Amino acid sequence: MPHSFHIDERVYQQMLYALHGLHILDVVGQERDLGFLQDGVWLTDSAVIESLRRVRGEWEISLVFAHYQRPMQFLRRRIISFSCKRKADLTASLMRRLAAKDQRGTLCIDPDQLLSEPN
Amino acid sequence: MSVTTKNRILESAIRLFNDRGIANVRLQQIADESGISVGNLAYHYTNKEAIVAGVLDIIQDEFAAILGEYLVYPNLMDLDLQLSRLQQFFQQYRFFLLDIPEVIRAFPEKESRLQSYFKKFSTQLRYRLDFFVQKGLLKGEAYPGMFDTLSHNLWLQAIFFQHQQLLKGTAHLPVNFRDQVWEQLLPLLTPKGQEIYVLEVQTYPDGLPM
Asked: Which residues share a beta bridge with A50?
């Protein structure tokens, strides 16, 4: 005979009450709720720079996304690691071309701007 | 196909139980209604208790499914939908509520599960009232314990609606307990609740389309 599932009466009441909370908390969304989309818009105009680092015996590929006018606004993401440097080099190059808005690399950052950028 | 025959037997049994009550139905009648021999019937279900147990399993599953539809929509329509489904369910299995003491006596092992469903239905009715108050659709309690009494009355009306019909005759009662429940809730609705009632419930006087 299959074991029948039993839920205590008080627990059941608490569950119903929690369910109410779910609906009461439910409010109409605001425009600012989609702000995260706006926050990431600068990434579409970013220069992508690949970076290779030796980490725990492997070559770790990171991509740095830096705004082409404000290079201090940047984001770094670790992508993958390889034990072979040549493979890591090739993959990093492909990754950069895949992630960059312009595959030819015309969007780039000026190192001088890094120095002139206020903290 | 064995499954089809089994289903046919259960469907025939439900029809006969509804018309005559469990006690007044014999295996021969179920076999005749199913269009099979008693021998064939006995192959699938050894006795009437096995058939009743099979029917009860179907009923319990359907009842559980209806209870599972609590607050699918956070408004009055949700209660109306559940009431409509319950009404259809009680209509489809008329014998169930009318013969329930007999069922429990014959199947004591099913008693606790059945009781838990009825309790859950009662709890849901009570908590729905609180929810409607929270949503501003229902006025608050005029005195402490008012909603306890009200939800209990609504529960009684739903569960014993068929008994009332049987004892008093249908002419003395509303067509269904869904209307009876709303008749009690209407004076307690806030202006916002009344507006939503017209929009969501009155639009479908015969119950929500399912």
From this structure: A63
